[in-house]
Amino acid sequence: MSYSLNELAEFLDARVEGDGGVVVETAASITDAGVGDICYVGNRKYIADLRESSASAFIITEDLIADSPAAAIVVENPRAAYAKVLGLLYPEFQPAAGIEPSAVIAASAKISKSAYIGANVVIEENAIIADDVRIDAGCVVGRDSRIGKSTHLCSNVTIYHGCVIGEYCILHSSTVIGADGFGFEFDQGEWLKIPQVGGVLIGNNVEIGACSAVDRGALNDTLIGDGVKLDNHVQIAHGVQVGQQTIMSRGVGIAGSTRIGKNCIFAGMTGVKDNIEVTDNVTVTAMSMVSKSLSEPGSYSSNTPIDDTRSWRKNSARFRQLDEMARKIRQLEKLIKEKD
Amino acid sequence: MSYSLNELAEFLDARVEGDGGVVVETAASITDAGVGDICYVGNRKYIADLRESSASAFIITEDLIADSPAAAIVVENPRAAYAKVLGLLYPEFQPAAGIEPSAVIAASAKISKSAYIGANVVIEENAIIADDVRIDAGCVVGRDSRIGKSTHLCSNVTIYHGCVIGEYCILHSSTVIGADGFGFEFDQGEWLKIPQVGGVLIGNNVEIGACSAVDRGALNDTLIGDGVKLDNHVQIAHGVQVGQQTIMSRGVGIAGSTRIGKNCIFAGMTGVKDNIEVTDNVTVTAMSMVSKSLSEPGSYSSNTPIDDTRSWRKNSARFRQLDEMARKIRQLEKLIKEKD
Amino acid sequence: MSYSLNELAEFLDARVEGDGGVVVETAASITDAGVGDICYVGNRKYIADLRESSASAFIITEDLIADSPAAAIVVENPRAAYAKVLGLLYPEFQPAAGIEPSAVIAASAKISKSAYIGANVVIEENAIIADDVRIDAGCVVGRDSRIGKSTHLCSNVTIYHGCVIGEYCILHSSTVIGADGFGFEFDQGEWLKIPQVGGVLIGNNVEIGACSAVDRGALNDTLIGDGVKLDNHVQIAHGVQVGQQTIMSRGVGIAGSTRIGKNCIFAGMTGVKDNIEVTDNVTVTAMSMVSKSLSEPGSYSSNTPIDDTRSWRKNSARFRQLDEMARKIRQLEKLIKEKD
Hints:
The structure is a homotrimer of 340-residue chains. With 340 residues, chain A is of the alpha/beta class. Chain A folds into three domains: 3-89, MurE/MurF, N-terminal domain (Udp-n-acetylmuramoylalanyl-d-glutamate--2,6- Diaminopimelate Ligase, Chain: A, domain 1); 98-300, Hexapeptide repeat proteins (UDP N-Acetylglucosamine Acyltransferase, domain 1); 309-339. Helices cover 16% and strands 29% of the residues of chain A. The first copy, chain A, is flat. Chains in contact: A-B, A-C, B-C. At the A-C interface, helix 3, strand 40, helix 4 and helix 5 of A face strand 22, strand 23, strand 38, strand 39 and helix 4 of C.
């Protein structure tokens, strides 16, 4: 698709600095860009790149106008404006509404006429598929589940029975919603399964990456708030609650019944213990282990720094002597004081 | 479903304290419960909640009878009894036996008349599906594989060729059994694949969560013992052996040819090295790295505690000086002794 | 299949020591082997096992000839030769070329006559499937994607639109290529999605395990070099570049836009930060966190050693005092010096 800068600015409700008639067709990074490209600069750190860029147009902040070598759209948040422009330049493929002949739809399921149901999709009894939903090839939507308006299930997603997915959500491939929570009781020499009779309730505008799993509740529903974004390989265990706009990077795992606040950020491969509470506005850095409730907003970390393996071996071995070392230090302090 | 307390007690082979005619329809947690609910209390810690609960009935231990505000079933392990009661109150959906028309079944496959084969399931040559098996939509069962009596494959599970799944197992969606183990030999500048010609042998009463992977053996089968429970995102590499009733939480990874004993508990996101041995009755706490054989039963851990990021940065940087710190402490001890 | 040692030696372009007429049918490990088995010994460490082995034949290095109790093929790299022999003894199942009737193929897709397209596979518009490709049951290949010659997609793999997979690759089940990268911008109180308009470009001879995810680029393609081997549960984020012959074990995650060199080895469950660079020939040990660029080849580690939980608790608690401990040590040094 191609747009003039004036058209893009109108769409963004922003103003143009320079020639608004310039036409752009593609987006590029500031260093790769050439004729026909638009790029964004959101940070004065890239001012030298901006000056030397060959892009046809830019999306920038007010204070960068003087340094822009070409026409520019001026906004407060260039990356947000850029995201919207990308949506115009690279419109998402939208299959025509309808049900592919190879899909298997239960007689009692209710499918909106404006929904798209892809090849080999299976929709079970009493499932409800709302308007403008897109369900790609190979997905399974279980009994009594509901998929909200304009939600997109990418190929090979599995939704178990009795789950509710909100509106404008995107769920990526191989992701599983509503598998049984991991609940067992050791009884007479073996693990007895605790039936998991809760469901999953996912809000609106939620995105979940590939190969992720949100388990159904043991008794009460697992809850994912509006605007939550989960990356690939994320696990949300039974009965967890995740507050609005919280974001979890790849591989994060939240154990059972833990409550996570709003606007939290969990960096990749972080693990959070079961039955704890993390308040709003908490950030946890990568590969940390959250082993207790966090009641104060702020940034938290665990883990050790990378080192060459030889040094690491020496230092790491000392980890097992830390308590002894601390005690020795105290003894030495005492000894020295006694000498005074 | 609704049951009188007497009916439930008879089912559990337990006695009722109070009015056995009370009818319950649903289960609830002790603090949420109301009329028609049954809940369990297995711990004197919740005695205040028990006293104030509005549930119609309880499952409790002998010593809690005096504190129960309503009729109760008295048992030794209330959580186990509760699990059984849940199975009655919330009976699992059981599709009628038969093969959905969209399933693709090889002529040489043998499918029990009492099995259920869901929509778009693919069963390859010579596979054997035993009595009362349930295979949900989109699953693939490879050549020469066998699925034991009453096992349930949830939607979109993949079983490769030549794998044996025992009886009364549950495998959750997107899980993969029998993918090639990760075996390569560096030869003449590139990685040469070692063909993985073993299989997978899974015992009875095994449950495996969503998005998990049990790889086939390089030469000998990968073995999962009876009663093993694996959560989501668990990895069992080629040639691993997992002993009976061992349980692994979300994200645990066991590397190749390692042998894990019986009755072990691996908390979430723990990694276990290849070619080692972990004896029976070992517990490993969350996010630990098991880098050597563990020959004594007991609890093991690694990792560092969560802290605010600012403090963590300071402390973590010192990790690289640990060996130096330990040496300094020893020098100081020496110096002080010399002064005596 | 059965082969004489002479036949195998000819295939390997190697020589036989002893009776080349010996026939072998199966492979076994040195300690399990019996009549009809061939095994390899690549290390003098196993010399005692070799001497006592009942195998019919061996693949060994020159220096082990004297210790071999039976005929042997003599090569420089026995494990590599063994890999090739396994391919002969256990030939991989090759379905006959053709398209299963239940597959759903878009009219505009181009499928080679020598390709195999399994049951319930979905091939979308304009996809191109090259010669000798094997696509097993339940896979989805998205619009405009290309699968190179002799590549094998195992059951239930998902390839999104606009992705290119090279030749002679193997992708295991539940793996997802081309899901959206995890890119959002916080704007006016919510996370705005950055459309991910790049693709994925995977080289030749790449193997990717089960339940792994290679995300599409935000703008530029995500690149996986020739000969790269990724195990199960591996994540390659948007815009990452992985150099040739690099190998990543189970659960490794590489965050966005990071560039990984050639011939690197990442052990299991290692995490690598976004926007950094790891040079060629770097090895990272298990469960490490690579939080900065690594510009020197070599081996790197982080993490702490396993210990019994009781000791670990004591030592781990001291981690939070490390900076204080280091300062105390310096003070004590000073105090002692002052006393001199």
